[in-house]
Amino acid sequence: TEIYTLSLHDALPIWVGDKSFLTDLYFWEGECYFQLGQYDSARAEYEKIFATNIHYQYVYLVRYLESWCAFQQKDYEESLRGFGEVAAKTDNPVLKKLSLFQVAESLYRAGRYPEAEKDYGAFLGEYPQDPLKAAASYGLGWTLEKEKKIPEAIRRFDDVVENSPGDPLAPWAAVREGADASVNGDEALAQKSYEKALDLAKGKAPADLAEFGLGWMAFSAGHYDEAAGHLGKVALFTPASQLLWDADYLRAGDRKSVV
After folding, report:
1. DSSP-assigned states of every residue in 174-189
2. How far apart are CA 67 and CA 103, in angstroms?
3. Alpha-carbon distances of 144 from 37, 116, 152, 177, rounded to whole Å
4. What does pTM read for this prediction?
């Protein structure tokens, strides 16, 4: 990709008099920078397109990609403006749908939770069977958490688990459902959700969080051997889980394991 970027850059003077070729080159050079994660450079190339040929046939795609760069750079207010513009003006149904979703994502990342809740809900209402449904429900669950609407957050996470079990977000949603259920005092649901997360995660990262959640529940209930069993399975120990693991063995009288 780096070689391709350099080749495009070297070609720019050759077609400098041809607006169409020049715009296409700016586009593809921007794409190369985007794939390299060089978002400042990508945005600079996309801006050249607007300055050179505002009637470029892919102008809203370019605006979408420019907004993605802003999103990756945590410039959420700018990404919100860009995605909102594309959603309002493009005739491309796929680009419109993706932009509407990213508007909600940008609102969440910007900490504008009431607006994010509204936009996630609107997306789910407009695209109830879309492949992005799980991601929108998951995002809405996190938003409701931030707003301290725990019972509603639980329902949204459960929607992902029950209706999109094959989605990569499903085990993460099950972990969040378990955590929220525990906070809400529903230990039975928390246990069920963490166990569901273990089943869905199949040894991947969410399994660590589920084991930690189950370990914490057992620890809080005074079941120290059970807690140690769960926490001992956590592949990547956090300082908190390591401390609890050691404390469990001490309470169980197993000082040798701590040493």
Report:
1. HHHHHHHHHHTT-HHH
2. 10
3. 31, 9, 7, 12
4. 0.80
